């Protein structure tokens, strides 16, 4: 048997460890991605076997698609709002629940509940909550003297109505991930800081956030990617229309519409590459930036 | 290695099985056909379909129909597309009628003219409005099945309360506009009851309204959008005025929410589908009735929608014949009468109305009969357009929403939508 | 009451008030869900909304259960979800260890490939994966519901982040002891990253439990359907939404995940004896 250097052995171990996930990854993710790369270069109506090679026409078409700017803006607003507000809410919940509290498991459970209910149930519930005339939301707002809104039924508020619902739905999810991260910070560090006379703000800024930074990096990246490719909540809350007046249509909704409703499989594949490209660029940029703000123990 | 004795026994068993395997196949193995049907895996419609398929299979020993339940129209559509791209569509399916041209034009669907001729299918008896969406480029592709039309429901008690004649709802939009304020109830700035509610932002109701104003949405050849012509503009302006200025009309995009609001007494009248009748019958706790939607200058129109049977071109002629046999049996007077009674959808044929089961059902629920008669008297088929999503709905529906739910100007919105739509439709 | 609570009573009170207020806000939609699930039909569409049912109709749960083959759907959901989560935990732990602790060529690029699992819209993988499974003859089987999810970008990333925060000295000590990588993973990394595993296991369970679209596409017979597909029985617009039954079915669908949360939460919150040397 030939001798393998320690370096080579480590690399071999590395690949062996990756193998069980690499095979399904190649078959069910990378192959479809490559396939759609090919499709983005053809004109194909999905139903006929005829595919016509068109080069980069599907990519240049994006520049002249007036709907694309609209869906990109909607996606950006949605992503920034859900990620930033969602993480702040999740962090507040995690910090509150990481301290000794009466009935703590129950509160944790309550905040986590929205994440576990199937969308089919949630959507019905929230469609009714948001009914501008007879829904719970306006009923409660009116009863405490606040102005009512049209919520999902106005082009100016519909996207925000979905954002509010999704922050409510994902806060518990952010909370459990951050709680797991907080668990990694040792109590002794806090005690030591307290003995040094550090205030609460200083502890948060100097100990909690830096030591939580690997988890925060994770959450920022993951929730951004998820928000950026949002589809299901948009589909159910806009009743499959992306409306009213395209106000809730997002990038992936546009992709779906192009492929499965307008039968433009080639153009849809080009949009898919735009989605993956932007997500990838964002992720790489985050990793690059993270060298400055993420500390590993 | 298995021991020789076991091998021997296995071989012997295999030899014995061969005759069983061969003979029935040669003689009379039933042709199994798969039909996809947009229904969930439970509920009254599913039970009605199971019953019908069971009866068919029992009386047709040479054919075995397997019904695959695919959820709703949209889920059915998704599954169909995926299976078509993968090259394995079912033998037949029920499909939302607006989706047919895409699939027919791509050669995915089997033309049915020959089958209909060979097996003398009785078209004369089917209500003409229901056949409107069956043809593409002169060929027959779809047979009506789960069909309904738009319909107006009104709360008789609410009319009485408002001092209006109980059983004569407004027959024209002018009349509606006159009486509507009496039906609206307010508490402070909150409306507790609207005069009328419906998803007028959707092309189904809107198209019906445009018909009643003497126009259509798309030219007959499917190449020109007509949303900016006078009838379409007049219809949208009317809706806008009723919703935004008079505040008597609630344009609610939530289709199922509309029925609930009617049942809860929050709308005195609704425009919905004729299938809502069974839900309202079961749940409403007040006197109500059905009527034609108020008329425009060209009368009242109830727009016909729903799902049709289609067969797939990939299926072998033998299976197509078997599937056709099934469709023919399903659309026979007795079957369509049974399904109509159980589901609330329209019986397809005039002769079905004479079936004794339907007759006794109508004695029990006279409103069901009235609604069916209205559908047939005022029903009209929908536009038949290739690229209806890409060329029509993509631009028309957002324009309707921008006017009725936002604050856009009808004329401007419709003109913009028309020019965008024409760029798609006319380019073919 | 713990020592810290007694030490700062005002702060503790404020925290309690904040938590209770937020919890009430978060819980309101559920309260409505619970109330609706036991309402008779006539109570549902009232306005102003009615918070206390005129009759507590608990038989709605039995009625909802009987509307579709839910027992079968339950078994399918359990089999599929448990298989996916166990496979994902295994593949993700191995991959995360490799990415966090081993050096090999092409590591960053491979890691990005793993992350791409999260980035690719499922609409893109839909048709190719359907065709792959058709070629493998796996349509309408458990395999079709499980295999496409064997690799997880999310899980690999989450666990890698936790493995990265394990102090190097701890691992060096094990290497000096002559432990192999598999043993280090099993004996040191797994116990230390237990909160991450509990969190990921819980989230993965929830996602796959509630997955609707993929099971719809790859299953054709009723026997292979999962719970979320069963809910369509109550929301079908053609038949009118049965709100009380839908909410009842939503409750019995979500219940296993809620129970799992109650069990799992011990593992990702502070206050429990910490495993490992750190901390």
The helix tally of chain A amounts to 12
N-to-C SSE string of chain C, H for helix and E for strand: HHHHHHHHHHHHHHH
| H and E string of chain A | HEEHHHHHHHHHHH
Overall pLDDT level of chain A: 90
Salient structural properties:
heterotrimer; B: 428 residues; alpha/beta; eleven-stranded mixed sheet; two-stranded antiparallel ribbon; globular; C: 279 residues; mainly alpha; 69% helix
Please tell me about this protein's structure:
The complex is a heterotrimer of chains A (297), B (428) and C (279). Chain A has 297 residues and is mainly α. Chain A has helices at 6-39, 57-63, 66-97, 104-116, 119-129, 136-143, 158-183, 187-195, 200-228, 232-237, 251-261, 265-293, and strands at 42-43, 52-53. Chain A has a two-stranded antiparallel sheet. The model of chain A has no long low-confidence stretch (mean pLDDT 90). Chain B is α/β, with parallel strands linked by helices and 428 residues long. Chain B has helices at 4-28, 44-59, 73-85, 100-105, 113-118, 128-131, 156-161, 173-183, 203-212, 230-245, 255-263, 276-283, 317-330, 333-343, 356-364, 366-378, 388-404, 410-425, and strands at 31-37, 63-69, 92-96, 135-136, 139-140, 143-155, 185-187, 190-198, 249-251, 267-273, 288-291, 302-311, 379-380. In chain B, strands 1, 2, 3, 6, 7, 8, 9, 10, 11, 12 and 13 form an eleven-stranded mixed β-sheet that branches. In chain B, strands 4-5 form a two-stranded antiparallel sheet. The longest helix of chain B is centred in the first third of the chain and has 25 residues, at 4-28. Chain C is mainly alpha-helical. In chain C, 69% of the residues lie in helices and 0% in strands. Chain C has helices at residues 3-7, 9-37, 59-66, 70-101, 107-119, 122-135, 142-146, 153-164, 168-176, 181-192, 194-210, 213-218, 227-230, 232-235, 243-264. Chain C is flat and about 70 Å long. At the A-C interface, helix 1, helix 3, helix 4, helix 5 and helix 7 of A face helix 2, helix 4, helix 5, helix 6 and helix 8 of C.
Structural topology:
The complex is a heterotrimer of chains A (297), B (428) and C (279).
Chain A: H1 6-39, E1 42-43, E2 52-53, H2 57-63, H3 66-97, H4 104-116, H5 119-129, H6 136-143, H7 158-183, H8 187-195, H9 200-228, H10 232-237, H11 251-261, H12 265-293
Antiparallel strand pairs in A: 1-2
Helix pairs in contact in A: 1-12, 2-12, 3-7, 3-9, 4-7, 7-9, 9-12, 11-12
Chain B: H1 4-28, E1 31-37, H2 44-59, E2 63-69, H3 73-85, E3 92-96, H4 100-105, H5 113-118, H6 128-131, E4 135-136, E5 139-140, E6 143-155, H7 156-161, H8 173-183, E7 185-187, E8 190-198, H9 203-212, H10 230-245, E9 249-251, H11 255-263, E10 267-273, H12 276-283, E11 288-291, E12 302-311, H13 317-330, H14 333-343, H15 356-364, H16 366-378, E13 379-380, H17 388-404, H18 410-425
Parallel strand pairs in B: 1-2, 1-3, 8-9, 8-10, 12-13
Antiparallel strand pairs in B: 3-12, 4-5, 6-10, 6-11, 6-12, 7-8
Chain C: H1 3-7, H2 9-37, H3 59-66, H4 70-101, H5 107-119, H6 122-135, H7 142-146, H8 153-164, H9 168-176, H10 181-192, H11 194-210, H12 213-218, H13 227-230, H14 232-235, H15 243-264
Helix pairs in contact in C: 2-15, 3-15, 4-8, 4-11, 5-8, 8-11, 11-15
